[in-house]
Amino acid sequence: FAALFAAEMVLRMAVQGVVLGQPGDDETVGPYLRDGWNQLDAFIVVVSVVSLFPFARDYAALRLFRTLRAFRPLRLVHRLPELRIVVNALLRSIPKVFTMLFLFLFFLLIGAILGVSQFGGKFTRCVDGDGELV
């Protein structure tokens, strides 16, 4: 599959231009590497092709980049505008999610501090109803 993806990338670069070039009539097709999705696509393809070479198996850094092949399904996002809208909305919501996570952790910290101040040392022994140690 890496060869097919590489061939597609090379053909699209030949048609659209690599970095320099003019946008098309509909202003949606421009140079290949000017689009962020195409940059991600090209990075995944390059990592896939490099990982096929025998010398790449010896380098730990390249083994790490091989795990990035899991992003191949994101290539589909480039072809389906509806899916691109969903992914872009998810990416834009990440800062708000981190804000809510920080707020949750802050309240959790307050609860932990109150719990330690109220119950700290109270549960170090067990006593029954008569006050006898169990």
Mean pLDDT: 79
| C-alpha geometry | elongated
Estimated radius of gyration = 27 Å
Q: How many E-type strands?
A: 0
Low-confidence runs (pLDDT<50, min 5 residues)?
Answer: none
Main sheet properties: none
Look at the helices and sheets and give the structural class: mainly alpha
- The residue fraction in helices comes out at 55-70%
Helix and strand run: HHHHH
N-C termini distance: 69 Å
Number of helices: 5
Q: Roughly what fraction of the amino acids lie in strands?
A: under 5%
Q: What does the secondary structure layout of this molecule look like, with pairings?
A:
Elements: H1 2-16, H2 36-50, H3 60-66, H4 75-79, H5 81-119
Describe this structure in words.
The protein has 134 residues and is mostly helical. It is 60% helix and 0% strand. The chain has five helices and no strands. It has helices spanning 2-16, 36-50, 60-66, 75-79, 81-119. It is elongated.
Keywords:
single chain; 134 residues; mainly alpha; 5 helices; 0% strand
Summarize the structure.
The protein has helices at 2-16, 36-50, 60-66, 75-79, 81-119. By secondary structure, the protein is mainly alpha-helical.
